[in-house]
Amino acid sequence: MVATTRSVFDHQLNELRDNVLHLSELIVAQVQQATLALRDRDMALARRVDVFDATINRMRYEIEEQCYTLLALQQPNSHDMRSLVATISVVTNLERMGDHAAGIARLVLRMDGMTCYIPVGEFEKMADIAVANLRDAMTALATEDKILARAVISRDAEIDELHKAVYDRLIKHMVEDTTSVECATMMLWVSHNLERYADRISNICERIAYVITGELVKQRADQMP
Question: How far is the first Cα of the chain from the last one, in angstroms, to the nearest whole number?
Answer without folding.
Answer: 46
